[in-house]
Amino acid sequence: xxxxxxxxxxxxxxxxxxxxxxxxxxxxxxxxxxxxxxxxxxxxxxxxxxxxxxxxxxxxxxxxxxxxxx
Length: 70
Fold this sequence. Notes:
It contains 2 helices and no strands. The chain is an all-alpha fold.
């Protein structure tokens, strides 16, 4: 359990699990609404696009100018 490969695998799993948790908690995707494999894949792709757009908005947002102290 203490090997370098295990530690890297744990970090990778944590990243993925955090994304799934975000989808379930913040986006409300507790179950898939569309039927069939293609419907589930399409719905999951839409959720992934939403997550990526939210992430892009956070990364590219320009913070409001702070108050200048004179």
